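step: validate -> pass
step: tokenize input -> pass
step: predict -> running
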Amino acid sequence: MWSYILKRVLLMLPTLFGVLLLTFVVVQFVPGGPVEQYLAEAKAGVRGADGGGMSYRGGQGVDEKRIAQIKALYGFDKPAPERFWQMISQFARFDLGRSFFQNKDVWQLIKEKLPVSASLGLWSFFISYLVAVPLGVAKAVRAGSRFDFVTTLLILVGYAIPGFVLGVALLVIFGGQLQWFPLRGLTSANWDELSWGARIVDYLWHIALPVTAMVAGSFAVTAMLTKNAFLEEIRKQYVLTARAKGLSERQVLYKHVFRNALIPIVTGFPAAFIGAFFTGALLIETLFSLDGLGLLSYESVIRRDYPVVLGTLYLFTLIGLVTKLVSDLCYVWVDPRVKFD
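step: predict -> pass
step: emit ->
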């Protein structure tokens, strides 16, 4: 197995390199780069009257020396290959660079936005698994019953409604009309002045609506996957043999079926758990005024903040590759019959 792990780790390097190279090449052809945006904002009075104009169409009449200074500020005075290799050398040292427009290290920005996205992701993850797995088992045991039909209908309805649409409805009804929940933010303005118990209540009060909007459709796949996995195992010969030996349904279900049926669930657990920390829900964060990773990524792309775009891409790709390896190793842990060789 160690040779397999070594091969997978070595394959991560060209994968990372290819992702970064492709993204860097695409970035070179995207119009409206940071130099243009800087000069456009300066011309509009955002950065002061001494900024100049656009560097291409709007840059006529602008002092060429000023434009050269702005390009040097962002590192665009160097050819693209040199900038690419400089970026690779920085990433090899886990230096993600510094944001063009927020004047902060990318690591610092991620640390600032991570608590918001992690709050949404972890609550959605745990609630989804705690509801979906028992629900899937119950549906499999009662397959074809009225309970199975009604829960399937509710699951499909929840899955069909987009999270942001449900979020709007929750905001209008429970935040606007009934005023049971706050409309924005992760905590109240006086959160620092509250006691620990009041802080927990305040936090849960704020997180209730966005988590509900995210969870409603997210556990549908896990619930149906659990049900189908259990149904497939229940129909196998070893289950009939266990029943013929006189074992109770509870023993058959939890001693024999449970472990085999949970293989596809457990193997996807690491990816889902890590993804809960770093997956930003742009629409939910925007709707509920939560400043998380999703909003950071969107604003970075719009403003052409390339260090943030490429730095977060490098970090998330690396985490995804490692998580995929851990997920594959879980197959051996759950089912010893699996051999990588």
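step: describe -> The radius of gyration is 26 Å.
step: cleanup -> pass
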